[in-house]
Amino acid sequence: MLRQSYLLFLFFTSSAIAEDVQELEPVIVSAPLHTKTAETVHPVNILAGDELSMKQATTISETLKGELGIHSMSFGTSVGQPVIRGQTGVRVLVLQNGLSSLDASGVSPDHANSTEALLAERIEVLRGPASLLYGSGAIGGIVNVIDNRIPMYVPEAAELAFEQRYNSVSNQWSSVLKHDGGLDHFAWHLDGFFRTSEDYHVPTESNGLGYVENTDAQSWSGTLGGSWIDDWGMLGFSYNHLDNNYGVPPVDELVRIDLKQNRYDLRAEFYEPFSWIEALKLRFAYNDYQHAELEDGVTVGTQFDIQGIEGRVELVHKAIGFIDHGAVGFQAQNKDSVAIGEEAFVPPSEKQNYAVFMIEDIHAGNIAYELGLRVEHQQIDAEGFSSTQHTPVSASLSALWNTNDNILFSLAFTHAQRAPDVAELFADGVHFAAQSYELGDEDLQLETSYNLELSFKTDFDWMSTELNVFHNWSNDYILQENTGDWFNLDSESFVSDCATNEECLPVYQAIQSNARFYGFEAQLALPLWEGEDNQFDLTLFSDFVRGELSGGGNVPRMPPLRYGFQFDYFGYDAFSAGLRLTRAEPQNHVGENETPTAGYILLDANVSYQVQLADKYNLLLFVKGNNLLN
């Protein structure tokens, strides 16, 4: 059982403040056509501004876990992978400003994502057909973490922001500093953060200690970037360094991961280079990533080194014939991965991906159609194995019916193929941090899914609703199955039974099976009362996903049915408060040799107050309590 936590937050900004502020409808930056949220056929979550500040946490998945259809799969307090509609790992792409994170987070659930939530200015989650723009493997969706490391505008005056956070559950302190400035056509950006935490506190009756051993962590990061911005477009560059040292629970032999990363990004945009082109966008990233898995917190057991390069070109065009708007592009990625050590469970490999993609909008009256296509080629050369090649082809067709300004219907069909990843193909060895013996299968075939989705949205003064219903048929779905066998560490052999878990590790084998996933996401927002100076809202929400294997049984690690309510108070004098209760039902539809989980209730609350100091200074204070029912 987890202990309740309290988060204190101070956010100070200094900037030029406009006299007149107009609230604009959110625009989806991750979509090349920059569609407004009310006009898209794709389910989308956008976190920005004060809402993002209130929800930001140690990991991206913890930040997003309260959004519709999104859960967090944690592996200790410092590691969390987003789970979208039951999909995680390589099926959920985490992007840094539209490009891959190029780290090792997709290899294993104990590997932290190198994208930092505290530095985000905006986080967008896209599901459905739009995910084809970034990778055929993003069957679950994409999470695009957007920051200002490469400035897109020259600020009128220098901007400075400082954040200080404290979390009681692990005595965690987090500090963030950001600075943006500009002169003539040149803009620059600087940011950095430092975070330290002790072991995670739990009730004493849970383990007799009152805390979970080896869950402390220390991390820091620094970024600098600059851009030349003119009427013709922009050209920018950034550099980021990340250092993250964290413990992986719960094992008798303390395992820690020491992660270091140096990332370089280049971005260029050209506005209307030709009359029929709206914009030409180029992005490039190089990432030098490494992490060491330390046994007893000191000795290097396994060393992961990744050199990743990714480039992307998008051409956004204006109306051509019956096509109203569209984008075509090319994407390439090369990833050299080396794992060194006695417990290296994947061989050294080089993975190359090349893809072309397109998305086109066609309007016919009050119906908007969107067509998407992506053709990708993947080649993996792993040491000691023959070269593997796959060519996934994915396509989508969707329609949005805007009955009036307040009601929207959409229907989308997606055919998506995913090529197996390195660990799924070639894993063979002990993965100490994950406490398992993992086996791949080099004969794995393309994973093919067919997804049908129906969405309904309303937006009235007295009510707003959102309902997404989806059904996904997946052929040759790749999963790690617990075989029921064990690997004896002393004899270094596979056994069918083991006296103690300390002597053996469970064996997981990559297999393929036909599967289907179905579920829904629903939300109803009601303004209960609105006065001259304040407003009181009620939101009801629920989401559900079920994963079934065609031969009987369930897909492992599916999140349970979740539902609840949220009260929000907004005071126009800058005071706000919220109360959220979430009920998760027991999960008894578990995978082979998987343990059912009990249901639970979470109660969270928050209070915030924003103060304008003089003309150019803002101060935001908030207190947030999580898991108040303990």
Short description:
The protein has 630 residues and is mostly beta strands. It has helices at residues 49-55, 60-64, 204-207, 422-426, and strands at residues 5-14, 44-48, 70-74, 80-84, 92-96, 99-100, 122-126, 141-146, 159-167, 172-183, 186-197, 200-201, 211-212, 217-230, 233-248, 255-271, 277-295, 299-317, 325-340, 349-364, 367-382, 388-390, 393-402, 407-418, 428-431, 436-439, 447-459, 464-488, 493-495, 504-530, 534-549, 562-571, 575-584, 600-613, 617-626. It has a single domain (5-626), classed as TonB-dependent receptor, beta-barrel domain (Maltoporin, Chain A, Beta Barrel), CATH 2.40.170.20.
User: What is the name of the CATH class?
Assistant: Mainly Beta
Q: What is the helix content? A: under 10%
Tally of contiguous helical segments:
4
Question: Which oligomerization state do the chains in this entry correspond to?
Answer: single chain
| Rough outline | globular
